[in-house]
Design brief:
single chain, mainly alpha, Tetracycline Repressor, domain 2, 2 domains, two-stranded antiparallel ribbon
């Protein structure tokens, strides 16, 4: 249902003018001498899901979309519907209003009204159009965010597997489970963030088209979708030990749940996010060994600094809009000294990785690839990024999620395989030596 409310009594008459010869012209002409009603309600049908529509005319309108939103939005004239977002709907009424593609509004004839009002047959195109807002809500197409949740767990798991001599098949099984969990965790975080930030998102150019902010998905629908994610994640950790269970619950609820509120009260929301995003480091140790050694806390500190590094670059995309909307971030806090401060956090990250490797007795592959290679990569990234260019900042964020994360994990993995194969070689050499001693003893006999 679409509901229009005029800002003044003449607005509706000026906006909706029947065409000559229309079947509604006679009725409308009789009403010209009367006061124009303040409301007019018409049906909404999904007809051209890829088209954009715009309401033109004087006054301001209040629209309510039954199929896409349970909330109302005040829409200024000569602006796309939903406070700046595109309306992916065909607006129609059997007797009156029909919104055609950009930019005209006109009365259709009765045949068109009937054809538009008829239910559309099922098609894969319509199904894909219906699923698209839900897919966009999870940000699954922007996979860098999922990888940034996954890498700390992968690093912690590989460090734990090396120390606890976890067999390779079990290691890769746990790695796959962690990847699924990271995907669900990132998607759930995006849904929750968009629910709480929907009013902020409407004021930011980059985010105003998000499904909740634009009205394509209702808040109750998003909440149900969020609980579906949380239910699966809770089921996945149902059999872990007590320490791992507590870490999982704290990560899912207070840590991830409070993050969207931090940007309202502090310029350091990235510091809170750094704890939430990197809990996988200690989760891996707790799940496998039931304890958290000092090396895990050293790695956690390094990944915390990494989160501030890449998420500050991410926040640089919206600096101007965030100031207008009242959103706080380290991107605004650091100001003109942003590259210098980020260099400090990059150094803290590498110091955490170095200390973690020393405490966990890692070998040359780790220190060369993870620490050495990661340091060079971060320095190069910081040199080339333009913090005043949204495109450059997004590119740096994306590369951190894929390239840098993979480079550091390659060092962890090479060292794990090195240690595992080294132990196997030592065991094999010991067996050969024992066999030679037995043969020598038999020969002397």
């Amino acid at each position: 249902m679409l509901e229009f409310e005029t800002a003044r009594s003449s607005s509706l008459r000026e906006l909706v003018e029947p065409q000559p010869g229309s079947s509604t012209a006679h009725k409308q002409s009789k009403a010209r001498s009367k006061a124009v009603p303040r409301r007019q309600i018409c049906d909404v049908a999904l007809d051209e899901p890829d088209s954009q529509f715009q309401i033109l005319g004087p006054g301001a309108w209040r629209c309510k979309f039954k199929r896409t939103s349970q909330t109302s939005h005040t829409i200024p004239v000569n602006q796309p519907c939903l406070a700046g977002g595109p309306v992916i709907l065909q607006l129609c009424n059997k007797t009156a209003l029909h919104a055609s593609p950009f930019p005209n509004i006109q009365f259709p004839d009765e045949a068109m009204s009937r054809s538009v009002s008829a239910p559309a047959p099922f098609s894969l195109h319509a199904l894909a159009a219906g699923l698209e807002p839900w897919i966009n809500l999870t940000r699954v197409s922007r996979f860098a965010g999922t990888m940034l949740v996954f890498w700390p767990y992968a690093w912690g798991l590989t460090m734990t597997a090396r120390s606890a001599n976890v067999p390779l098949p079990r290691f890769f099984y746990l790695l796959l489970c962690g990847f699924i969990g990271a995907s669900l965790s990132h998607s759930a975080g995006c849904v929750w963030n968009d629910i709480l930030d929907r009013n902020f998102d409407r004021q930011v150019e980059r985010t105003k088209g998000r499904p909740i902010a634009s009205g394509k998905i209702s808040v109750p629908g998003a909440v149900a979708f969020l609980w579906a994610h949380l239910g699966i994640m809770i089921y996945m950790v149902r059999d872990v030990n007590d320490l791992a269970w507590k870490i999982a619950l704290v990560t899912m609820f207070p840590l991830a749940g409070l993050y969207p509120l931090m940007k309202r009260i502090t310029y350091w929301p990235q510091a809170w996010l750094g704890i939430s995003m990197n809990a996988g480091v200690v989760m891996a140790w707790a799940f496998i060994t039931g304890s958290i050694p000092p090396s895990a806390f050293a790695l956690l500190g390094g990944t915390w600094a990494w989160t501030i590094f890449y998420d500050t670059l991410y926040a640089c995309q919206d600096k101007k809009d965030d100031v207008k909307a009242g959103v706080k971030s380290t991107a605004l806090l650091f100001g003109n000294a942003i590259k210098l401060v980020l260099a400090c956090f990059a150094s803290l990250m590498m110091a955490g990785l170095l200390l973690a490797g020393i405490l966990n007795n890692h070998h040359y592959p780790y220190f060369v690839l993870s620490v050495g290679g990661g340091s060079v990569y971060l320095a190069t990234e910081l040199y080339r990024v333009d913090t005043d260019s949204p495109k450059s900042c997004w590119g740096a964020f994306h590369r951190n999620g894929f390239n840098l994360g993979a480079l550091i994990w390659a060092g962890f993995l090479a060292d794990y395989v090195w240690a595992a194969q080294g132990a196997a070689l030592v065991d094999f050499a010991g067996k050969l030596m024992l066999q030679d001693i037995r043969l020598s003893a038999l020969t002397h006999l």
